[in-house]
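Input/output pair, single chain:
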Amino acid sequence: MFYPGDPASLQDELATCLATPPAPSHQGIPLRITLAEAGLLKAVIVPHAGYIYSGGTAGHAYALLAPLAGRIRRVVLLGPCHRVSVHGLAAPTVQAFATPLGSIPLDRAALDALADLPQVVASDDAHAQEHSLEVQLPFLQTVLGQFELVPLAVGHTSAGEVAQVLDRLWGGPETLIVISSDLSHFHSYREAQAIDRATAEHILALDQLTSFDQACGALPINGLLTLARKRGLRIERVAQCNSGDTAGDKSRVVGYASFALYEPAAVAADPGPALLVRARNAIAAKLKQPTQAEPAHPALNQPGATFVTLTQNGQLRGCIGSLQAHRVLDQDVRANAVAAAFSDPRFPPLTLAELPHTRVEISLLTAPQPMKFSDEADALRQLRPNVDGVIFIAGQRRSTFLPQVWEQLPDPRQFLAHLKQKAGLAANYWSSEVELQRYEVQKWKEAPIP
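Output:
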């Protein structure tokens, strides 16, 4: 009823949902999309209407999970009951849930461990036709691959009882919490916008919702918000719209929003030492050499973009990196370290004899931001020496300099000229098609080699 039963059609629809821009129904309300500078993506709140209505809004939250497929191995999924009356939270007794994309095993040990809580009851009937949970499953299968599921249908209970269950299931980096809820139901387009705007602001402030008119999943949302306050989670709105923006008429609409919640880092905020060790270990392992113990850090399980720079006696020996986050930080820094050592086309592959004399530097990039300028002179005025890393784009040609390059090219005009030459263009090239993006970096370097 809510998505195609044919696997190929379903996969096509999911791909569209995961790539759809948010509908512009906010009237200037900012979507709090920022980098998770410190913390672990722990929970999402997503809508559960048919994909044609709310799939794009849900897809923007699920797209955040794609780089975490190797880390998340268990999903705790809560949504409101729509078809069967339940006192408490309903847990299924079956071993797996099935979708057109395959079977998802349930974490029976986790479900059985809830049996001592009086608000948790066993009911397969509550799950048999419950769309609030079912519509989330193909998204999860697409972005996470293999995982175990802990599904609970929330009926007549309290936010405190929901929070107690979530606290029991909280787990560590391997566990993701998904709360399924739509917002207002069956108001006019403008009325729904006003109601949903106020509801979203309550959620962003981690304040309890007071009515099911605000969200059909108010109880599971409130349970999560209770723990979010207790545990110091940070929340962002990822997307928001209503059915009048997608596939419905504007006389009676349903509101949708998605949110991401981040858990604070449990250890020191500086991931530099952990990154440096992993970069060196990746190179050493490629050369079949012993590796060092690797310190843990929660940021390593978050998406991140790094550049790895190798030097010998202060001279460049290799530099390869990622301009945008497309995998978790742990994987990114290892892959770029190996590429810098053995695949930089400017240098021969690093040898075992060179390894002790090679110094590793890591740069962690913020998301690139487009620059707006009227001409080259305007662009040069905006550049910030020693702060900006710059991406130069002209048609199919592209190049970048890290902020560290300002040390060799301190003049903005000289900096940009060399950047154009790196892209294979003349130093004095300029065109209306030129695009510039800038980013900043955190950087860490190994101690000088004696």
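The CA atoms of residues 88 and 178 lie 18 Å apart. The radius of gyration is 25 Å.
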